[in-house]
Automatic annotation (TrEMBL):
InterPro entries: AAA+_ATPase, ABC_transporter-like_ATP-bd, P-loop_NTPase. Belongs to the ABC transporter superfamily. SUPFAM superfamilies: P-loop containing nucleoside triphosphate hydrolases. GO terms for molecular function: ATP binding; ATP hydrolysis activity. It comes from the Bacteria. Keywords: ATP-binding, Nucleotide-binding, Transport. This is Export ABC transporter ATP-binding protein. Residues 2-227 form the ABC transporter domain. The keyword Nucleotide-binding applies.
């Protein structure tokens, strides 16, 4: 369990983390999302005692990192991907770490198998591919069999097989009851790996939520409807304030033009519309009230990426259109 309360980090005049409070619970993977410069790495470093908060606290298993009697047994970390440049073999690297932390040798063999490095365990880690390096990094994080894992961009630069491997591993480790905090810029990957979400922007908490809730709340949500009376239903939905787009015209029109969508629907034989701004339940009720047959009524959730862009739009530190000054970002 990780608990941050009023966590703040200031570097000179720059507030990197601003009064951040959240709880990362055990048993699920928690995604840590935020635009570049949002303060994710700084927060992770404070969790791990590598940076001192200017204000506030962050506790692992109820204690400050520095007060944990054997930190490696409580929390393992993989900070932003740095290949391990070492002339040592993977096994020797892990043995040295185990020795430092008073961890038995047999655990080294266990983690080598767990991360699938058995075949290359005797090879020089400095010559490892990025994927193997990440596996070794994760083996190091798991060495103390910690209840909590903090992973900053662990899938950066990995091939699809490696990405999938990390996803399955993390979900498995969470299912064992561990607490896992994971940052990633790969939204589709985060959507498949994480259950809970902490979303930050400019150092502040934007939302502490779940992947499901986060995408449900996004404005990109639409309902796909097929009906032989699509035009009639489109008109009824538009009257309730929905934006209706005629599906066949979607590709050409974008999803904004309610009126032209209606025009298109009226003048066509096609039976499919996209309705934004009205829940599927209400569309179903309208259809029943007006005796409209429905062939299909399918809510389409925004992707995590769409939800993220939607919600963090104002929290992006630098945009290409209008670069913000450091004053302007506060
Ligand atoms: N040691 C430091 N000295 C000065 N400013 C820093 C330092 N570390 C981070 N910052 C600033 O604090 C802010 C937060 O940075 P941080 O690296 O924590 O963000 P992040 O969310 O991890 O970003 P990214 O997704 O790009 O890795 C940024 O504006 C960054 O420039």
């Amino acid at each position: 369990m990780i608990e941050a309360r009023g966590l703040t980090k200031r570097y000179g005049g720059k507030v990197a983390v601003d009064d951040l409070s959240f709880t990362v619970r055990p048993g699920v993977v928690t995604g840590f999302l935020g635009p570049n410069g949002a303060g994710k790495s700084t927060t992770m470093r404070m969790i791990l005692g590598l940076d001192r908060p200017t204000r506030g606290t962050v506790l692992v298993d109820g204690r400050h990192y520095r007060d944990l009697a054997s930190p490696a047994r409580h929390v393992g970390a993989l900070l932003e991907s740095r290949a391990i440049h070492t002339g040592r073999s993977a096994r020797d690297h892990l043995l040295a770490l185990a020795h430092t932390h008073g961890i038995p040798r047999r655990r080294v063999e266990e983690v080598i198998d767990l991360v699938g490095l058995r075949e290359v365990a005797r090879k020089r880690a400095g010559g490892f591919s990025l994927g193997m390096g990440q596996r070794l990094g994760i083996a190091s994080a798991l060495l103390g069999d910690p209840g909590t894992l903090v992973l900053d961009e662990p899938v950066n630069g990995l091939d699809p097989e490696g990405v999938r491997w990390i996803r399955d591993l993390l979900r498995g480790l969470a299912a064992e009851g561990r607490t896992i905090l994971l940052s990633s810029h790969l939204m589709s990957e985060m959507a498949m790996t994480a259950t809970d979400l902490i979303v930050v922007g400019r150092g502040r908490l934007i939302q502490e939520t779940t992947v499901e809730e986060f995408t449900r709340g996004a404005s990109g949500n639409r309902v796909h409807v097929r009906s032989p009376q699509a035009a009639e239903l489109a008109e009824l939905a538009a009257r309730e304030g929905a934006t209706v787009t005629y599906s066949a015209a979607l590709a050409g029109m974008g999803s904004t033009a309610a009126a032209s969508g209606l025009e298109a629907a009226r003048g066509s034989e096609a039976d499919a519309i996209e309705v934004a701004g009205l829940p599927s339940e209400r569309i179903g009720e309208l259809a029943r009230t007006y005796g409209i047959a429905l062939y299909e009524l399918t809510p389409r959730l925004a992707s995590l990426e769409e939800a993220f862009m939607d919600i963090t739009r104002d929290a992006v530190e630098f945009t290409t259109a209008a670069p913000a000054t450091s004053e302007g970002t506060r």
